[in-house]
Amino acid sequence: MKVFIDQLTKKFGDVIGVEDLTLHIDDGEFVAFLGPSGCGKTTTLLTLAGIYKPTEGEIRFDERVVNRVPPKDRNIGMVFQSYALYPHMTVFQNIAYPLKLKKVAKAVQHERVEQVATTMGIGNLLDRRPGQLSGGQQQRVALGRALVKEPDILLFDEPLSNLDARLRLTMRGEIKHLQKDLGITSIYVTHDQVEAMTMADRIAVMNGGHLQAFDAPDELYSRPKTQFVAGFVGNPPMNFLSVEVSQAEGRYVAQAAGLRLEIGRERGERPASHAGAVVMGIRPEDIQISEDGTVAGEIYIVEPLGREDLIDVRVGRHSFLLLASTETQHHAGERVKLSFDMEKAQFFDPQTEKSLLWRQ
Amino acid sequence: MRNTATAPNSRGAWRSVLGAYGFMAPAGALVIVFFLIPVAIILYLSLTNLASSNFTSNLAAMEFVGLKNYRTLLNDQFARKIFFNTIFYVLFTLSIFNVTLALIVSLLTTHIDRGAGFLFRALWILPRITSPVVYILIWKRMMAEAPFGILNQFNTWLNQPTYNYIATNPWVFVVVVNGFIGLSFGMIIFTSAIESIPKDLLNASLVDGSSKLQRIRYVILPLIRWPLLFVFTYQTLSLLTSFVEIQLLTDGGPGLYRTEVWSLTAYHRALSNYFGNAQWGYGSAFAVLLVLIGVVLAVIYMRVFRFDELVAEPRVENL
């Protein structure tokens, strides 16, 4: 089922939950809503579910406008961060609840619940109550309950946030696999950019109730259209600093105190034509410590991550995070030279925070 | 069976037992001072013929008459009527107002705008926080005979016949007047129970396909089962012993014991006899029976509603 959100605004009194959101989701697509707390992603999800009514704008499922359709007539499955299992019902009753409300015959209920429970690997827990299950088991029950009624759309509200890190990794893979298997259009709300990057076909990045970008994960990563997206997507985060970009004799140069970096023509042209300072962004993996580096700095702190080291290097009053192989031992206080891969650098207008390279 | 794990066979175990009693001590002290000791006193008084005529505050000097008061009570020609009056009063006030209407008011006020719901509930607390004398005076002034009663004044203006409302329907007013106060207790407990149900659970039910009525039936009511049973139990016991409003409204009348309830009789006999002769001994017998009924009912409720089973043992396993 396709989902069309057109100029959706949801206000709570004077407080804006989400404003002027337009988003079209394809059939069978897995879309993540990504953003910090209070960015409007959960509001949007609950509006899609029918819990909230839109203040303005329109939501359509395929051709059907659902603005005023109550949740029960939307055929949606939803998984909550808190699992939201009914504590007074057994696992079986929890999963069977949507079927019971649909007045499905008892025998069919049993069959469908058993089938879903087996798929989710919780077939042996059907007589338990939620209070007697671990977090991971509860999450499986919640997924089972969302799937049992064969929904047209699946909504996930930070479903993995309450699980421990390892389980989160397993469930991440399982949910993605299941979604591709069933081909149900899915919307997944998260503040964890790794979850969004790994699971989604497309990511809607939101901030302050507004849509910042809606793109495939690799597009967001390599061609961020706003500074917010560039900073929010990617871990460790992108380095930002204010630079002056100038052109002399066909060569483009970005300059800041203690820093002078050459840029290729393709990247440099637009920032150079911008009057005044611009914001340059560069990802940690695009900075190397090397002998023939052009920027001198001093290591402030080394954080070993196991596979690599996360190193904070101070250049004048600027600070850069970069990733370095663990083969060479670095230590705080060490003087190093850095080389920047300027073909990967991003440039943003400091006023509008929009990208100078990629137009929206 | 001997359970060695919990037997206080070591210093640590003793300490934990002492700790447990320590935590129970404040509540235990209250129960002893304000329940067990008074019960013991009225039990003793009920076995004496203490009255205004032979008053003494010396326990040893009181005249011991054994079960005479209880025999008198059983042969009292009005005791039977008063007993059934009490059941009628408790049953109707409890089932109509203190539980059912309290639940309905809670459900309604939690399903409308928050502010409006709050205002409505705040208004309904007024009878409870008003002094019973003032509250009953308001009712009496409203319902009084023509030409004094407010309602009857309207009747006169509209050329309708006037009524002596309370005298003609005393039971209706006894139940309504008490119910208006009693309702607010359940209302507060139910409302807070409903509002403490996680929002996600309520949303989940709607997404799972329930209407709001189905959500009340399948999710909200089962989740407030404990408060429901609590209000039912607590209010039965509190209605059994309440009499102030009845005393002020009808004083057990009109006529002989028409709306007299057991606790009011205990009061009348022991502290306010018509003939200026307070029968403390005889009144105590009524009170002792009331305590007995209360304790028996409490035990039955605990058993029937299986309060202990409302707490499930967790069985957590790794995934």
H-E string of chain B: HHHHHHHHHHHHHH
Radius of gyration of chain A: 24 Å
Major pleated sheet of chain B: none
Strand content of chain A: 25-35%
Instruction: Give the CA-based shape of chain A.
Output: elongated
Biggest interface, CB < 8 A: A-B, 34 and 26 residues
Strand order of the largest sheet of chain A: 6-7-8-3-9-10
Helix share, percent of chain A = 25-40%
Poorly predicted runs of chain A are none
Question: What does this protein look like?
Answer:
The complex is a heterodimer of chains A (360) and B (319). With 360 residues, chain A is α+β, with helices and mostly antiparallel strands. Chain A contains nine helices and 20 strands. In chain A, the strands form four sheets. Chain A has a six-stranded mixed sheet with strand order 6-7-8-3-9-10, sandwiched between helices. In chain A, helix 3 (106-120) crosses helix 4 (135-147). Chain B has 14 helices and no strands. The longest helix of chain B has 36 residues, at 11-46. With 319 residues, chain B is an all-alpha fold. Chain B has helices at 11-46, 68-75, 79-111, 114-129, 132-143, 150-157, 165-168, 170-195, 199-207, 212-223, 225-241, 244-249, 262-271, 280-304. In chain B, helix 2 (68-75) packs across helix 14, helix 3 (79-111) packs across helix 8 (170-195) and helix 9 (199-207) packs across helix 10. Classes of the chains: A alpha+beta (360), B mainly alpha (319). The A-B interface holds A 46, 49-51, 70-72, 74, 76-78, 80-82, 84, 86-88, 97-98, 101-102, 128-129, 131-134, 136-137, 145, 149, 155, 167 and B 198, 200-201, 203-211, 214, 218-219, 222-223, 225, 312-319.
